[in-house]
Fold this protein.
Amino acid sequence: MKHLRLAKLSSALLGLAYWLGPAGADPSLAQATKPEVIKTQYQYAAKVVCSLMLPHQDGTLAKGMYRTIVNMHNPGRKPLTIAAKVALSADFGSDPGPFSITPFKKAELAPDAAMKLSCFDIAGYFCPINGVCINFAFLEGFVVIKSPEPLDVVSVYSARHSDVNANP
């Protein structure tokens, strides 16, 4: 009985410590974990569909392999700092899960240069999120790109039926 009371007291103290946050935490550490703000004026949403490990076969799309590449081009004369995140689609009317929207990642895009995000780059946005890495067999949603200046954003989609007996 004594062990049970001790376990309950320990659990309560741990819960209270978690709720209150770290006492006496170094304020410089708190500032180091704040996300960097990138000033942007333009936003683009590019549809992505990616079957990463196995052919997609849940019935929402034809059974097969799906790939997306999102291309970004800086038509301007100065380098840009852009940011991108991934937002997975949830079922209509349902709440997104805790890992459905990734944090933004930034990149430098030189004048007249282009860069891409492939399905495997997009999957990399999900590792780590709050210390957790998520492996997807299939993901579907949007890449959201923000920029301080206009960009050219184009997506390329490919699909291949996974049934070897299918007609080409």
